[in-house]
């Protein structure tokens, strides 16, 4: 094998006019070979794009030419040769090979085509995810995810929030027993954290003032839908010294706007690959109360029984778009009756049948829920008693409310929900590298 200077390799996007006539090494996956007899085009793909390697039989000799053109697709190659400008190639450059090395030969046939246009079931794609992720549009989703998170961290950092990490192995859940995953933890009962809820509140008592966490959350969701995962990335925010939920919604609005702008400004090429036209959302996002949304739905022939179900959410999404041109909107003042399980939610002191809780929806899908918390010990205990929670199990949490807890609130945002809607993906699993759901734990 010839030696190639891999450390000095040039990525597809780095080729430039200044390199014309010089010798470079490129390396990547052999996407395709077009052999026309005396000349062959090998397309070598890396994270940044595709380089065309143009092989001439006359120059390389019969034996090398035959060997080079029979390397199986998706093998990993390094090629060293001269850079030449060529307007007919999409990148504007080609490489005239002088030597090459097969760094890893791919077996045949491939379980999944990378550039074939035939539709493949999502399950097959996820079973062969390492291959599926080689597709440029799939890779694009994860580049956009990267930019979205970068924008979120940037915004929160600029606003004075500090990033924290709370335990994912916990002794008590905050979001209802039904979706807890029990785990073996030495001789004790333990669960995977559904949300950092209790811990971000503890940190308000500790005086951290403004915190955020970006971490996995686990839910034993029995619903096999296009928007539920058993493990998702949760962006949790908490802040102190608030009076009402408006200040929390303003932070959220700023967060969404800034992170969308980051994706638009820096990720246009990825959006193009996915054929997504993304516009910066206009602010303020409309705020409608839960009661108003019930009225709107009833006027449009949809009667609710209790909480909004998927059909009602979708319908409201359509109406908000049609009547207010709004993709993103807040539903505020959730009734206490519907938020009983959310024992930590603050109720309106003047109107206890309503909470200070809101959702942020995007075209009918919930992205975020949050609100002001109950910081008064006695009220909190009473709300926990109403749903029969074992106070002793929550002692570590309740203690923090006895010794100085400021008024506070925050929200939890599902990162994949945002991507699902922002990129109009058919299934939320598309934006997780290795999704976990009721039926899938491998790969
Ligand atoms: P909630 O349970 O509403 O609130 O969750 C917050 C957000 O997390 C996302 N989410 C999910 N995403 C994918 N798959 C799931 N199974 C799933 N479950 C939830 C949604 C949802 O809006 N502690 C509160 C937040 C708070 O009040 O700060 C909480 O967890 O986008």
Question: What can you see in these coordinates?
Answer:
With 443 residues, this protein is α+β, with helices and mostly antiparallel strands. It folds into two domains: 6-104, OB fold (Dihydrolipoamide Acetyltransferase, E2P) (Beta Barrel); 131-431, 2-Layer Sandwich (BirA Bifunctional Protein, domain 2), CATH 3.30.930.10. The protein contains 13 helices and 18 strands. It has helices at 57-60, 62-69, 122-127, 129-132, 136-158, 197-205, 246-266, 268-273, 290-299, 310-324, 377-386, 395-398, 415-422; strands at residues 23-35, 39-46, 49-56, 76-85, 93-104, 162-163, 169-170, 181-185, 188-192, 210-218, 231-240, 287-289, 328-332, 347-348, 351-355, 357-362, 365-372, 408-414. The strands form four sheets. An eight-stranded mixed sheet has the order 6-10-11-18-17-16-13-12, with helices on both faces. The chain has a five-stranded mixed barrel with strand order 1-2-3-5-4. It has a three-stranded antiparallel sheet with strand order 7-9-8, with no helix packed on it. A hairpin with a 2-residue loop joins strand 16 and strand 17 (365-372). Helix 5 crosses helix 7 (246-266). The chain is elongated and about 85 Å long. Bound molecules: aspartyl-adenosine-5'-monophosphate. The site of aspartyl-adenosine-5'-monophosphate has 22 residues, from strand 11, strand 17, strand 18 and helix 13.
SSE layout:
Elements: E1 23-35, E2 39-46, E3 49-56, H1 57-60, H2 62-69, E4 76-85, E5 93-104, H3 122-127, H4 129-132, H5 136-158, E6 162-163, E7 169-170, E8 181-185, E9 188-192, H6 197-205, E10 210-218, E11 231-240, H7 246-266, H8 268-273, E12 287-289, H9 290-299, H10 310-324, E13 328-332, E14 347-348, E15 351-355, E16 357-362, E17 365-372, H11 377-386, H12 395-398, E18 408-414, H13 415-422
Parallel strand pairs: 3-5, 6-10, 12-13
Antiparallel strand pairs: 1-2, 1-4, 2-3, 4-5, 7-9, 8-9, 10-11, 11-18, 13-16, 14-15, 16-17, 17-18
Helix pairs in contact: 5-7
The structure holds aspartyl-adenosine-5'-monophosphate.
